[in-house]
Specification:
Length: 143
Amino acid sequence: MGLDSEEEVATALVAAVESYAAAGTGTRPLPQAIEDCLHTLLYERGSDGILELSVSQPRSPCITILGIVIWVTEQTLSPLEAEFQLDKAGGAVKALTIRAGDGRISRRNAPEYPQSWRKLHRIIASRPTVDEDWAHVLHYEFA
């Protein structure tokens, strides 16, 4: 991506989501920049790619994007959740939390890549509900 720091990548991710939200999320596909930034942020944590991103909650004051992360060494799959807290006007992102990997299941015991669409859906549906159960939680605050 050509960005130097994690903060720059997070800022680029926020800009892509703000642009997406400003255009009205509807049923439009997510911009490639969102997937690219999520991949870049998770690469240092062992990610080999992102699959099946979709908007779960396209409403103000929060946009939630769900998907699947592939772990490079094990070639296994885990859930991914990116939550963008918007300001009251519903435009600017105030905070971003990215959660990846189900900490309740070792990477070695996670489902292997590839999987059917139905099994991918089950991975997302059974994702952790508290931060302590995720393998990685990244949080960023924006002015």
